[in-house]
Design goal:
about 450 residues; six-stranded mixed sheet; 19 helices
């Protein structure tokens, strides 16, 4: 939407979270008519600073959704609001346009945009990509699902800036013009299926990241993910692939023009059109551990080289990068016992990644709120690597019942108790890993809150 059209339009913002308030302020500053509605409970409303809305001259209602939300031409909805929500269905029946916050922020964006999505790995890849650009001296803003909302930083961007944006399927589901010059999709496995009402809808939402790209833009795709490879066959943009399994220069599909892969313990990059074939670094020099981080690194290499960042800068960044908070984050070593915080692991696939990052001797803190986790897929790994499970949250009894014949399992009522039990069960050389494979909302406000509590109680140990 053009800025001149925005000024003449009226918008309802559904949800007063960080991105909702940010996009409301952005639109109001442009001269648009804005109304914010948040129907949250009184407990959650305490996080909304009404003085900010008043100062920005934004009309609002809290604790209720009235009919007034349908009086505007466009609704910008919070990512968590399902397409099946009755308000959304009524709005669509009335012909009201529904957009996500990243779509609106894009209307104001003057810089090129790198957007990153996937079921797992998108946060680390986003932050890592931002670090490479920062080291290259580029004015880069990292935003979206990590850090600040896109709407909070978009006014700071200019033609010489680059925005690196982590995007979710929730956000991508409601875009129309949103166009990254580089779109990265890390992988795809079933997740958020209750929200999307099935895997196909989830996949379609993720693939929207490519929908507005032009011939000169770049789609960065995980070659090792067969579903993605097939689903992206007919997209318009140029394609670049990354793989830790295949030599992409010798792949059966000889149409691969650009890519990054692992060969003989080295990270390689090529661009046939530019006659580039180069070694970036040894895989052992990458500071963050695990195969999943090889994927994250390869995707970041392609994004950086698209912007012609030198391989020496990329190598230096990958050598120094320590990872992101709450994702296989080393916390502390106490009497030879290492503690790792992987609170961001909210599904089975993320847990598998974490388990694959260690050789064994694990005390695993597992559990939370989940909708149908199939724990049988990790039975073999748990038997080989996990000495004891400390089960927490709503699903602890299910976990106990499933794993009691595979490894030792104990239940803990609180995070403090779980940490103390794990410490008691471990010996020098063991690893205590919080990797819940579940959502956090049974015991905590967010996965960040859960991870912070884990770290707090670990740091109280001695």
């Amino acid at each position: 939407m053009e800025i001149s059209e925005i000024k003449k339009s009226s918008f309802t913002i559904l949800g007063g979270g960080r991105s909702g308030i940010a996009v409301a302020k952005l639109l109001r500053k442009s001269g648009a008519k804005v109304f914010l509605s948040d129907g949250s409970s009184i407990e959650k409303l305490k996080y909304i600073d009404e003085s900010i809305l008043t100062a920005a001259e934004i009309e609002y209602e809290l604790g209720v959704h009235s009919e007034r939300i349908f009086e505007n031409e466009v609704i910008i909805k919070s990512p968590g609001i399902s397409p099946e929500n009755e308000i959304i269905k009524k709005a669509k029946s009335l012909g009201i346009k529904i957009y996500s916050e990243i779509e609106v922020a894009y209307w104001f964006c003057k810089s090129p945009l790198i957007a990153i999505t996937g079921t797992n790995g998108k946060t680390t890849t986003t932050v890592l990509t931002g670090e490479i650009f920062k080291k290259a001296g580029i004015d880069v803003k990292v935003c979206g699902n990590v850090g600040l909302a896109f709407s909070e930083i978009v006014s700071e961007l200019n033609e010489d800036s680059v925005a690196v944006l982590e995007t979710s399927s929730y956000q991508l589901n409601d875009i129309e013009e949103f166009r990254p010059v580089v779109s990265v999709i890390m992988n795809i496995t079933p997740d958020h299926l209750d929200w999307h009402r099935g895997f196909e809808n989830y996949l379609d939402a993720k693939l929207k990241i490519f929908s507005n790209q032009k011939d000169e833009d770049m789609a960065v795709i995980n070659f090792d993910d067969e579903i993605l490879r097939k689903a992206t066959e007919k997209i318009n943009s140029k394609k670049a692939y990354f793989s830790i399994k295949e030599n992409l220069l010798n792949a059966e599909d000889q149409k691969i023009e650009t890519g990054s892969f692992i060969k003989n313990g080295k990270v390689l990059y090529f661009d046939k059109a530019k006659n580039i074939e180069e070694e970036i670094m040894e895989t052992g020099e990458i500071n963050i551990r695990g195969n999943h981080n090889l994927y994250n690194s390869l995707a970041s290499v392609i994004s950086a080289r698209y912007f012609e960042i030198k391989k020496e800068i990329i190598k230096e960044s990958l050598t120094e990068f320590t990872g992101v908070e709450h994702r296989i984050e080393f916390v502390k070593e106490i009497r030879g016992i290492s503690f790792y915080n992987d609170s961001k692991a909210t599904n089975i696939d993320s847990l598998i990644v974490a388990l694959d990052s260690f050789e064994g001797d694990l005390i695993l803190i597992l559990g939370g709120r989940e909708t149908g986790n199939d724990y049988s897929v990790i039975d073999k790994t748990v038997k080989e690597k996990v000495k004891q499970i400390i089960a927490i949250g709503e699903t602890k009894d299910k976990i106990n019942k499933h794993f009691k014949n595979i490894t030792k399992v104990s239940n803990a009522e609180t995070m403090e108790e779980a940490v103390i039990m794990a410490m008691s069960a471990a010996k020098s050389g063991d690893i205590v890993l919080l990797s819940p494979a579940c959502k956090s909302f049974d015991m905590f406000d967010s996965f960040e809150h859960r991870g912070s509590e884990f770290k707090k109680f670990v740091n109280l140990l001695n």
